[in-house]
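Researcher: Going back to the complex we discussed earlier. I've cleaned up the inputs and rechecked each line, so this should be the final set. Can you rerun the prediction on the complete assembly and write out the structure?
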Amino acid sequence: MCLYGPSPAYVQTQMTTGKTLKERVRNGEQVEPTGDLPEEYKRAAQRMIQFHANSEIVGTLPEKKWIKKAPSLQRKRAISAKVQDEAGHAQVLYRVAETLGQKTRTEMLDELVDGEAKYTTVFNYPTKTWADAGYIAMFIDGAAMFRQGSLTGSSYAPYARGLRKICYEESFHVKHGEDIVRSLATGSEKEQQMMQEAVNRWYEPTLQFFGPRDHMSDHTDELMEWGLKVKSNDELRQQYLDEFYVPKLEKYGLELPDDKLEYDDEAERWNYTEQDWDRFVEVSRGNGPMNDERLADRQAALEDNDWVRRAAGVA
Amino acid sequence: MTTTEITDIGTAELDGFEQGLAVALLEMADDDHVIGNRLSDWTGVAPTVEEDVSIGNIAQDELGHAEALYEEAADLVGSTLEGLAYGREPSTFRNVQLVEREFADWADTVVRQYFFDVADDIRTGALLDGDLGERDESLAGYLAKVDQEEEFHAEHGEVWLESLADEADSTERVQRAIDENWVDAVAFFTSGPEDIDFAEAGVYARSLDEQRAAFVDEVTGTVGAYGYDVPETDVEDVGAGRIGEHTADLEELLAETREVREQGIDVPA
Amino acid sequence: MTSTPAENVYYVFRRQRSGAPLTEVGSVDAKSAELAKMFARENYARRKQTDNLVVVCAADMEEIGEDAAYGGTLEKNYRKDEGYDVEGFPA
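Model: Rerun complete. Updated structure for the full complex:
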C-alpha cells in the first residue's frame, strides 16, 4: 500500500544516504517513500511524475471533440473510453506524486494552469481531422507504451506500480487507433490521403515525444543515476522507430514522412532529419499552437467547478 | 413542426403493439444518443479527475443503449441503424429537450442526468411489465440490463445531490437547476404525433400519466430528503421535444455527429 | 500541506472473484464514504472482473512503519522447514 506521506525521519547525512540509494538502485532495487529518501531524489522524481500526470490530463483535450464527431457509435464509445482512461491515468499519477510529500494534487493542477509546470509538447498541436484521432491513439499512445514500459523498472516503486496498470490499459488504445489507421490507409483515395497527411504533419511532434536528444537533455543524467529513468530518450526513440513506427507505416502502405529516415547498418541506428529542437523548447515553454487553449480549458475547468470541489471536499 | 409519423419512417407493416413499441424504442434511442453525446462535453474538464472517469462511463452506457435500441427500432420498422441515427433531420428527432441543451454548469448536469435516469428507469420498467416479455424475450432481457445500468446512473446522481447539499452555495445552484429543468423533466412522459394509447396497445404496463406521477413521487421524495424543493407540476406547460420541437443546440450536436461520416471517412460498411 | 488530507483520501480494494484475496488497486479523492464508493465503482471496475470493492479512509489506516523489526531481530529457524533435518511430511 502507498505510505501516506514520509514516516518520521532518522538522521543521516545526505551524502551517505545518497550513495547508499544510488548503489541500491544500480542493483535494480525499487524504493518506497520512506523518510530517508534524499531531497534531490524526491525533487527529481516529483518533476518527472508531475510532468507525466499533467500530460495525461492535458492529453484528454486534443481528442475530446472527436467523441462527438466519431463516424459511428462504436468508434464513439471506443474513443470516449480511451480518453476516459487518460483521466484515470492522471488520477493514478497525481496520487503517486503525492506520496513524495512535496505538493498536493491541487497545487499541481494550479501550477499547470498557471503555466508553471510542464507537460509533453505533443498535445500542444491541433487535431485537424479524424485521421489525427486515429494517428494519436496508435502512434502517440504507442510511443507512450515504449516509454512507460521501460519505466515499470523505475526505482520509485509507487511510480513503477502505477505504470503497470497504465500499460495494461494503454494497449487497447493502440489497437483502437490502429483499427482507424487501417481503415483509412486501406480505404478510398480520399481516406488514404487524409491519413498520409496526418502522418506527415505529426512526424516531428511524434519523434519529439521522447524528449530532447540525450546530449541536450538537462535532466537525463540525473534521472538515470537515480534509476528513475531506465532507458534514455534516444534509446527509446530508436526502439520506437525500429519496432513500431517504421514497420507499422510500411505495413499499411503509408509513406515514411522523412527522406532521411533509414536504418544505418554500420552505426546500427536509425538516421533521420534532425528535429527542430529550438521549436521544441519554445513549445515546452508555452508558445506552441495550442498551449494557450489547452491551459485555458483546464483553467476554466478549475475555476468553474471550484464551488463543486468545495462542496464535495475534494481537490 | 411535427416529427415524421412512425409508419412513414420504414417499410414494414406494424400491428398496434409494434407501432407503440417502435415509437417507444425510437424515443429511447434518440434520448440516449443525444444525452450520450452531450455528456462528452465534460471530457477533460469535469470537476475532479475521478468524476471525469465516472461521467465517461455514463456517456458510454447511454451511447451503447442508443446503438442497440436504434438496431431494434430499425428491425421493427424496416429501416437501418445508420438511417435512424444519422439520416433523420433534427426536426424528426423524438428526444426530450432535457437531454439536448448545452450544460450550464455542474448542478445543471447532475440534476438533468438524475431526472433522466429516474424517468428512463420508470419508462423501461413500464415496458418490461407490458407485453414485451411475451412478444420479444431477447429484447426484454436486454432492457432488463439497461435498467440496471440506469439505476447505477441514478445512484451517481443521488450521491452528487447529497454531497452538494452540504454547502449553501451549491445547494442554491442545485435548487435553481431543479426549478429550471422541472418542466423539461416531466415532458419526458409525453409522446409523438401518433397519439398512441400505449397501455391499451400492451406496450407500457402503466400509462404515461401514471409514469409521470410515479416520477414526481420518487423525485420529490429523494431530493426532498436532501433538502431541495420540487416546483408545482403544470402538465400543460411542457417542452415539445417528442413532437420534434428542438433547440439550436440539438441541430449543432447532430451536425457534429455527422460531419466526418458525410465526408465518407471511416464509415463502417 | 504537502499531501491531500488523509480524511479526503480513500484506498480502494478489489476482490476479483469469490475465493480471491482483497487487494489494493488504488485510491480516490472524496470527502465521504458515499462519494468514495461511487467513485471507486466507476473508476476501478471498468475492465477487470470484480466481485467486490471496498473503500477505506486513509485517516482510518494505522501504520506500523518501515522501521519495525518485523519477526524480531534474531534468527528463528525453528519456525521454518529449513530448521529441521528430518523428512517430515512425505513429498
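Model: Worth noting: Chain B has nine helices and no strands.
Researcher: Good, that matches what I expected from the previous run.
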